[in-house]
């Protein structure tokens, strides 16, 4: 029987994933996130759809995939609510 790679959400798959801090989401990001959300308090996707929803996630518009230059580019960030961010992530965007 062929060996299958572990699913991303599996215990084995999660052990291979770097920590949030190792992926760039440490203290510097947390401070930046709070500042960004204070300046952009509403979900950009909800606004595009005519809704008003508080944002709680700073999303990378183009996934950075470890590219630190792209990770920190302010024009690659948007404020989203958790449901919009989760839906975007699930679509692979």
Can you walk me through this structure?
The chain is mainly alpha-helical and 93 residues long. The chain has a domain at 41-93. It has five helices and two strands, in the order αααβαβα. The protein has helices at residues 11-16, 27-39, 44-48, 68-72, 82-90, and strands at 57-60, 77-80. Strands 1-2 form a two-stranded antiparallel sheet. The chain is globular, with a radius of gyration of 15 Å. The N and C termini lie far apart (33 Å).
Question: Radius of gyration, Cα only, in angstroms?
Answer: 15 Å
What level of helicity do the residues show? 40-55%
Profile the largest sheet.
Answer: 2 strands, antiparallel
| Helix and strand pattern | HHHEHEH
Q: Regions with pLDDT < 50 over 5+ consecutive residues?
A: 1-6
Tally of alpha and pi helices: 5
What sort of overall outline do the alpha carbons produce when their principal axes are compared?
A: globular
As a percent range, the share of strand residues is: 5-15%
Strand order of the largest sheet: 1-2
Class of secondary structure makeup: mainly alpha
Got a strand count? 2
Indicate the mean pLDDT. Answer: 87
């Amino acid at each position: 029987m062929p060996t299958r790679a572990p699913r991303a959400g599996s215990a084995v798959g999660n052990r291979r994933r770097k920590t949030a801090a190792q992926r760039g989401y440490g203290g510097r990001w947390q401070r930046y996130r709070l500042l960004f959300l204070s300046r952009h308090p509403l979900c950009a996707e909800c606004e595009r759809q005519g809704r008003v929803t508080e944002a709680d996630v700073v999303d990378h518009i183009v996934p950075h995939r470890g590219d630190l230059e792209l990770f920190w580019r302010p024009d690659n960030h948007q404020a989203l609510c958790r449901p919009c961010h989760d839906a975007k992530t699930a679509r692979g965007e």
